[in-house]
Design a protein that fits this description.
Elements lengths: L1 H15 L8 E12 L6 E9 L3 E9 L9 E5 L5 E7 L10 E8 L5 E8 L4 E3 L4 E3 L5 E5 L1
Antiparallel strand pairs: 1-2, 1-10, 2-3, 4-5, 5-6, 6-7, 8-9
């Protein structure tokens, strides 16, 4: 019986403790562009990220080896290493082409990290046999928490 009272008190105390929600920060992405070079001899992804009062940096990727399809870009730093990012196209599902996704990761000076993503329909990326070109909005917000 003693154990039941202690366990009940412990569980009630745990449920009475408020759950803290993570703070969400907005990262403004501007000037976003992504494309492969005509005839599939390389790719570029380029944009700026601003988190008001914290960081304003440029992020980019380029290669000379990608074919006509945009490559998956593994996590890499922006000019300010407090911001890292990655880019990929999700796997296709039956009847639908996979969505494109960019992940933005911010690590504060205290070492606390937060991340968020933005995704697009595949139709925002014009693809033909020779190249892929992003045709969507060049500015968008990424909620980072």
């Amino acid at each position: 019986m003693k154990y039941l009272v202690v366990l009940t008190t412990f569980l009630l105390g745990a449920t009475a403790t408020p759950v803290r929600q993570r703070q969400t920060t907005q990262a403004k992405v501007s000037g976003f562009s992504a494309s492969t070079n005509t005839y599939g001899n390389g790719a570029t992804i380029d944009y700026d990220v601003e988190i008001a009062g914290l960081v304003n940096t440029h992020c980019s990727y380029s290669d000379e080896t990608s074919g006509p399809k945009l490559p998956d870009v593994q996590q890499r730093p922006c000019d300010d290493p407090a911001v890292r990012w990655q880019f990929r196209q999700d796997p296709s599902q039956p009847g639908a082409e996979g969505r494109y996704r960019i992940v933005v990761i911010y690590t504060s000076a205290s070492g606390v990290g937060a991340a968020g993503f933005h995704e697009w329909a595949a139709s925002d990326f014009l693809e033909d046999a020779d190249e892929t070109i992003y045709e969507g909005a060049s500015e968008f917000i990424v909620d980072i928490s």
